[in-house]
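anyone seen this seq b4? input:
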Amino acid sequence: MRWDGQAITASDGDMLPGLESNSGFVRSVTTPEFAGVTFHEVLAKSALNRVGAIEGGTWGMTINPYRGCSHACVYCFARPTHTYLEFDGGADFDQQIVVKTNVADVLRRELAKPSWDRHPVALGTNTDPYQRAEGKYRLMPGIIAALADSGTPFSILTKGTLLRRDIPALVAASERVPVDLAMSIAVYDDDLQQSVEPGTPTTTARLATVRALRDAGLSCSVFLMPVLPFITDTTAHLDDAIGRAAAAGATSVMYSALHLKPGVKPWYMDWLARTHPDLVERYRAMYLDNTYAPRDYRRWLGERIRPIMRTHGVGLGRVDPATGSMGFSVDGPGSDRAAGVSPLKRADPAWEHRSALGGGSRSRALGSGRRPSPGITNGVATLF
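predicted toks r here
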């Protein structure tokens, strides 16, 4: 396993067989309450990641307390990142979770450096910081405190209802720095949700978390991502999804069609063959030689979904093009912020430049076949 890039020398007790020489590897842990999941505890050398350089040189900062994710979403775009650790992007991604146990302490040291410019930081743009492991390791309270104490704006995108545990900390942080929050809720049919996202909290529980955040005075967007072609793109499903998000108080909604990277495509197609065999050929026609849904499909989806959003009075969100982080209402009601302006935009003078690049420049890149910024598709984020 390639741990050296983010690791320091650590105790070699209880390591995986054959991995004793990998610096930073502390131990591997299994517990009865996480059946089938192994946690690999490591000591990280760094917490902040600079990512997402695209046309014009724009970039973003992220934190990933965990690698791998027990949410086990079959469409997760981050699956291929697990192969860097010499795990596979299938079952290993779901069951072999790397935990950076010292991430909050390392982050605090990094944020204390004179060179730190308080650039907005995004969490949840790769794997989920509030996956089930967070209930065991409690890394997020320390991360939230470190960011707030340093005056650093931050955003969190999650499917995890454990976020509710940290509402008091988030409220306190929002009084000191701009905070953006979003809940990822892609599927509003209970049986389908448990099939395609077997490790996630229910849709109802996630919507209740949106409501809890809003009742606490915090903003919360909903990521309706990904929309699954021929499965969740019906008018009935989209209307139910957007209506329930609006009723929960979502400050904006973001959407995008499914995209399938090479390392994700076999995993998703295997699920599709088991659960929707009648759709396999249609998906092959759409995705055989493509990562992204065809342009005509994306245009059709936009034409279907935007009138529904207007009917329910919820605004379309936008994202930072460098990281795919938080959205805010830009073309309709639903934001309680001044003039619908993202707090990350207010905190980051370079946001307008990045946002401008994220529009026309990114669209041209998609049209020309050049690879777009990671996590960005057709002007909106595709995060899970």
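The CA atoms of residues 119 and 358 lie 18 Å apart. The longest helix spans residues 351-368. kinda curious what u guys think
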